[in-house]
Write a structure and sequence with these properties.
Cytochrome Bc1 Complex, Chain D, domain 2; mainly alpha
């Protein structure tokens, strides 16, 4: 009986401490809170309305490519970080690509297609003004068979 009393008291003490600790915590220090990331650079504002609820591009403004439709792989891969007005590509990490087909040929001695291909194959080869090396390597493999279609689409964006 003598040994049971200290064990019972110790058990009650531990339970009381646990109860006080649980009641005194509002949960703020236990639950991870999202924090805003530092801005990577100025993003050109989007003038088109985002896509409607059924996932189709907004009809208030046609896709800037005119005849070339954005491949689905572009929207689900590149569009996570990049924006193209009039499409479901609404990422805000990388530069706006709405007019990359006409801008690409002015950044280096390469034509637009070569510039875009090299930018995807080797993301550190060229950095858009105001952006650091945030584009991940290995996107050619991620795009797979859609790589050429994505390049053709980006070249068409004038």
């Amino acid at each position: 009986m003598f040994l049971r009393t200290p064990i019972a008291l110790l058990t009650l003490l531990i339970a009381a401490i646990a109860l006080v600790a649980a009641c005194g915590n509002s949960g703020e220090s236990v639950v991870a809170q999202p924090t805003a990331l530092a801005p990577l650079g100025e993003i050109t504002p989007i003038t088109a309305e985002p896509g409607d609820s059924d996932g189709e591009p907004a009809t208030s403004e046609p896709a800037p490519s005119g005849s070339v439709v954005a491949p689905a792989k572009f929207i689900t891969t590149c569009g996570v970080c990049h924006t193209v007005a009039g499409t479901d590509a609404v990422g805000q990490v990388g530069p706006e690509l709405t007019h990359i087909g006409s801008i690409a040929s002015t950044r280096t001695g390469l034509d637009a297609e070569a510039y875009i291909r090299q930018s995807i194959e080797d993301p550190a080869a060229f950095l858009a003004p105001g952006f650091g090396p945030v584009m991940p390597p290995g996107l050619v493999g991620t795009l797979g068979d859609d790589f050429d279609a994505v390049v053709a689409y980006l070249v068409s964006l004038n």
